[in-house]
Amino acid sequence: MNVIWGSIIAWYLFLAGLAAGAFATAALVSFKNRKLVKVQLVGRTIALLALAIGLFLLMFDAEAGFKNPLRFFYLLTNFGSVMTWGTLILGVFGCVCLVTLLLALLKKKVPRALDGLGIFMAICTAAYTGVLLGVIKTYPLWNTALLPVLFLVSALSAGMAGTFIISTFVAHKELEQLDMLKRLHFALPLVELALLAILLYMTASAAPAARLSVDRLISGDLAPSFWLGLVIIGLIIPLIAGGIGSLVKGGRRMEMREDAQVAPKSEAEAGSVAGVVAVVGSRAGAVAGSESDAEAVVEAKSVAGAVTESESRAEAVGSGALGATRVIDAAGDAGSLVGGFLLRYLIIVAAVPLTFIF
Amino acid sequence: MTRYGMLIDTTRCVGCFACRVACQMQNSLPPHDSYIRYEELESGTYPDVYAEQIPLQCQHCEDAPCVSVCPTGASYINKEGIVLVDKERCIGCKYCMTACPYNARIQDHATGEVEKCRFCVWHDDGSVPKPSCVDTCVTNARIFGDLDDPESEISRAIIAHNAKPIAPGLTKAKIYYVR
Ligand code: SF4
Predict the structure, then answer these.
(1) Closest C-alpha to A349, from A8, A57, A13, A3
(2) B109 is in which domain, residue-wise?
(3) Residues from chain B contacting residue A78 (CB–CB below 8 Å)
(4) Is A282 within a domain?
(5) What is the ipTM of this complex?
(6) Domain-located, residue A48
């Protein structure tokens, strides 16, 4: 089969989506709580880096332009072309990414309006990558209005995953205040699964030839990467990880509430979903008001060996071991990233042209 | 107005592929690249079967999707209705290749530029020679000419054979097929 666009373009689509999602994550965090500077910095950095790498790949793939770079100026001539819209969108979005990252690095306030504009451009960026393929009638698998929506959701999912997985290592304390966002991002795979199912169903029932694309994915040569890579690793694992995380955190929150009410010593054995997880840590958090105090308490008690989790505001993790849920969260995030790439890769390579000769 | 088109009579085509070779020679294409490709269609049930050889190339669509998606304006339609590529503007993004439902475009591996059948037009000055494929065809299965001139050979042949574009609902193609 003659594949016109290959993995380079799939990487570009993924990186553009990742950039859009990471920027949106950073901006949302900033709207929620400006003080969480590290997570914002992580998100903004990923956005600019991913966009820069993606754009390089895009230009590299456009061989004739890569060899004659001046020709890229012609990109602004046909305003009926989705690729021209993309050029404009990427231009504005890239500038916003650059400026906001610089402001963040200089420890200046990023104006809300700029972040708002950035979110808008991020949405345009993620959606346009879907429209780019969506307007192409040659491939029934691409030619749907659903693709931009799917790419948008997947972009947010990948961007949050990317931001959170790195923040786990460099800004885990800030992450703990972002429960809502984390919960949201683990729900996105569910939406993606539904959209993907509708997309494949629509394509399969559209035309006899269109079925071929779907068959390649669900039972043909691409089935292993589709089921194992995209569905299981990319969507189900993040879902499960999110589910476990929510359960554990839910249990922990109840526990902490109890801790706050009852005298600190009385319920060390309070059972929770988390079971053995560092009750000491959470109690320390509830008792001591500030984090540093809590850490001091924890350290003093040296709760080595306790299976703790990142949610524990008291940072019992200070004892060394990575919290179990933190590992699970990271696995879910990694899955989301793999899924984000595979989604685009598979949609690109599985495309079978329509048959027009009967 | 001149509006160039072509007629391909698949009932005369013997599948010798001479048109492809002539096209490759004309355009200095390597053996594995060509602007003409073939699809074979089998129909009927044994023993009453029929194999049809269908030569395909750029259909010079009036509503060319390749032209509307081309971001640099490198793909365009000239005043005689011939779809052309201005290589000096082509960045090789291959968007037009994905947009062409006939899979009629190929990429020049040396330059990265995209090219395709151009009805053997070199200059945009209206001087159109007879395309090599038409010239070469041993069975005269191909006719080239002005669709807007009702007296032209092609216009009369289209009416006589009730020739139609290969996929009438797909694009407004200017290559007519007799099948
Ligand atoms: S056949 Fe393909 S290359 Fe030719 S004008 Fe139509 S879309 Fe463009």
Answers:
(1) A3
(2) 4-178
(3) 68, 70-73
(4) no
(5) 0.91
(6) yes
pTM of the model: 0.85
Q: Is the peptide bond before B47 cis (omega within 30 degrees of 0)?
A: yes
- Asked whether residue A215 is domain-assigned, the answer is yes
**Residue A200: CA count within 13 A, CB half-sphere:** 18
Nearest to B8 by CA among B159, B177, B122: B177
The CATH number assigned to the domain holding A204 equals 1.20.1630.10
CATH code, domain carrying B114: 3.30.70.20
Tell me the C-alpha distance between B103 and B95, whole Å: 12
Phi, psi of B56 (to 5 degrees): -125, 145
Atom 6, ligand 1: which residue's CA is nearest?
B61
Q: Render pLDDT for B98-125 as a digit per residue (tens, 0 to 9).
A: 999 999 999 999 999 999 999 998 644 5
Place of tokens 């729900």: A187
Question: Minimal CA–CA distance to B77: which of B4, B144, B127?
Answer: B4
The C-alpha atoms of residue B29 and residue B106 are separated, in whole angstroms, by 11
- Among B14, B3, B56, CA closest to B174: B3
> Which residues form the pocket of ligand 1, taking CB atoms under 6 Å from any ligand atom?
B 58-61, 64-66, 83, 100, 102, 104-105, 116, 171
Task: Tell whether A70 lies on the interface with B, counting CB pairs under 8 A.
Answer: no
What are the tens digits of pLDDT across the range A148-171?
999 999 999 999 999 999 998 898
Query: Binning pLDDT at 50, 70 and 90, where does residue A111 land?
Result: very high
Tell me, yes or no, whether A28 lies in a domain: yes
Residue A260, pLDDT above cutoff 60: no
Band of residue A324 on the pLDDT scale cut at 50, 70, 90: confident
The three-point CA angle A257-A294-A316 to 5° equals 85
Residue B55 forms contact with A (CB below 8 Å): no
A126 token code pair:
């993620």
Rg (CA), chain A: 23
Residue A135: closest C-alpha in chain B: B99
Number of compact structural domains in chain A: 1
Instruction: Give the separation between CA A207 and CA A352, rounded to whole angstroms.
Output: 11
DSSP structure class, residue B38: E
- Phi, then psi, of B144 in degrees rounded to 5: -120, 145
Predicted local distance difference test score (pLDDT) of residue A2 = 63
Chain-chain contact of A74 with B74 (C-beta, under 8 angstroms): yes
Give me the DSSP letters along A306-358.
----TT-TT-GGGGSSPPHHHHHHHHHHHHHHHHHHHHHHHHHHT--PPP---
Pocket test for ligand 1, best of B56, B59, B176 (most atoms within 8 A of CB): B59
Cα of B30 to nearest chain A Cα, Å? 18
B39 and A CB contact within 8 Å: yes
Share of chain A above pLDDT 70, in %: 78
Q: How confident is the model at residue A179 (pLDDT cuts 50, 70, 90)?
A: confident
Q: How far is the CA of B100 from the centre of ligand 1 (A)?
A: 5
Number of folded domains in chain B? 1
How is residue B47 written in tokens? 């023993």
What range does the domain containing A211 cover?
7-254+319-350
